[in-house]
Design brief:
By secondary structure, the chain is α/β, with parallel strands linked by helices. The chain has 15 helices and 7 strands.
């Protein structure tokens, strides 16, 4: 009885067309989607393209049998709220999956409350359960600096940190961790936890949007819901953006989304109170200037002028 002969291992290719790999892997689609879905963020998109190029080359080297080492893929996203960090993390998970660096390509988004328990023995199982869900994909930890609270002696965040660091080192082939938050707070967090800094190769800063970009974002959000601004409302929105940026708790695109939600609420009430007959699609879909200028953002500026004439 003869033993079954093993099939010979496939020969390594002598050459690889990176442009063809770029297109066939779907990475081109991911980057085009990123450009299409996110306005502005030129430096962020540039870093993502550079990272994609590195991973394509490393994959090509591996297929040709050249010496290679899986690059460290853990990342830090720093920037103010509403600058697209979660959206970019989703696209990154897709990109890494298409290139074969993670098995599933899903994203698990968490905060401190998902990882840290409130009593002894609670943190480890919580953290491990989240890690189990994230394996094969990307774990996105927003406001990661809240994991570390040295002022509270009874805080259990350090236990979660130690578990995360161990997994980031020992299972980096099956999990990518992205830490996110304000730049200044993340810097202090890394100073207090050098283990994190040493495991993170990619630090990407997300800039605030310009006024023009925020207007473009507003118009895109409205278009996706089949709404539009009339000419006077568009001018009011420009004024709103400039005023809102000067006030506390401004959150870039998130603040614009909230403003549009309130404008739609005012539009609905205006139509309900003033309409005397059937309304066509145009009327139901048009935001007027008064729907924007009724915002307290305009009232606050008027009050400031009265206080400081």
């Amino acid at each position: 009885m003869s033993a079954t002969a093993e099939a010979p291992a496939p020969e390594a290719p002598a050459a690889i067309d990176l442009r063809s790999e770029f297109e066939s892997s779907g990475v081109k689609d991911v980057l085009e989607e990123l450009d299409r879905d996110l306005i502005g963020l030129a430096p962020v998109k540039k870093r993502i393209r550079e990272t994609a190029a590195l991973l394509l080359v490393e994959r090509a080297r591996r297929s040709m049998g050249l010496a290679h080492e899986t690059p460290t893929l853990h990342m830090s996203f720093t920037g103010n709220p509403g600058t697209g960090k979660t959206t970019v993390a989703l696209r990154m998970a897709d990109l890494l999956h298409r290139l074969g660096y993670i098995r599933k390509g899903h994203l698990v988004s968490v905060t401190r409350d998902d990882l840290v328990g409130q009593y002894i023995g609670h943190t480890a199982p919580k953290t491990k359960e989240i890690l189990k869900k994230a394996m094969g994909g990307v774990l996105f930890i927003d406001e990661a600096y809240y994991l570390y609270r040295p002022e509270n002696e009874r805080d259990y965040g350090q236990e979660a940190i130690e578990i995360l660091l161990q997994v980031m080192e020992n299972q980096r082939d099956d999990l990518v961790v992205i830490l996110a938050g304000y730049a200044s707070r993340m810097d202090r967090f890394f100073e207090s936890n050098p283990g994190f800094r040493s495991r993170i190769a990619h630090h990407i800063d997300f800039p605030d949007y310009s006024d023009g970009e925020l207007l473009e974002i507003a118009l895109k959000m409205l278009d996706q819901q089949n709404y539009r601004l009339d000419e006077a409302a568009a001018a009011a929105m420009v004024d709103y953006i400039a005023r809102r940026r000067e006030q506390p708790h401004f959150a870039n695109a998130r603040s614009i989304r909230n403003a549009l939600d309130r404008a739609r609420l005012r539009q609905a009430n205006r139509l309900f109170e003033t309409s005397k007959g059937p309304l066509d699609a145009g009327a139901l879909s048009t935001i007027c200037a008064e729907d924007i200028t009724a915002s307290r953002v305009f009232a606050m500026r008027s009050q400031e002028k009265e206080t400081n004439p």
